[in-house]
Hints:
By secondary structure, this protein is an alpha+beta fold. 65% of the residues lie in helices and 17% in strands. It is built from 4 helices and 6 strands; from the N terminus they run βββββαβααα. Strands 1, 2, 3, 4, 5 and 6 form a 6-stranded mixed beta sheet that branches. Helix 1 packs across helix 3 and helix 3 runs antiparallel to helix 4. The longest helix is centred in the C-terminal third of the chain and has 82 residues. The mean pLDDT is 91.
Amino acid sequence: MATKIRLQxxxxxNYAFYPIVIADSRAPRDGRFIERIGSYxxxxxxxxxTLNFERALxxxxxxxxxxxxxxxxxxxxxxxxxxxxxxxxxxxxxxxxEAERRxxxxxxKKDAKxxxxxxxxxxxxxxxxxQRLEAExxxxxxxxxxxAQKKAEAAAAAAAAQAxxxxxxxxxxxxxxx
Length: 178
């Protein structure tokens, strides 16, 4: 029986998530499967991957063929590297402790790189938010100045109109007094 490690499509239209399963190559995409070893959700940023590392390693070592997408997921999680290192242990190139040391060094380097990217993105997001806030404050200040100037002009016009209205009345009173 030819087994494949592949994705099943679940979810709704425009919002799919994918269980990672071991299935017979002749079974339908979303049909019968042997074992579920994880899931892949591309809707989050970054994509969320949960994987049972030991079972994935077992099936890769057994000879199950991953599809292209699953191959990249397994590679990103380190399953294919660990399978390669275990092959070196079987051949006697190095021992199990050396394989574990190499894998842990690779995993630490990868985690540091991912953390650096996340930190950079977070700093960039904060800088953008700060820039937007400063632009909004400047825009609000300019708008407040324009409104204050308009109110001052309206108040001056009202005062001038009131002074003009009072001037004929004062002249009439002055004429009446004479």
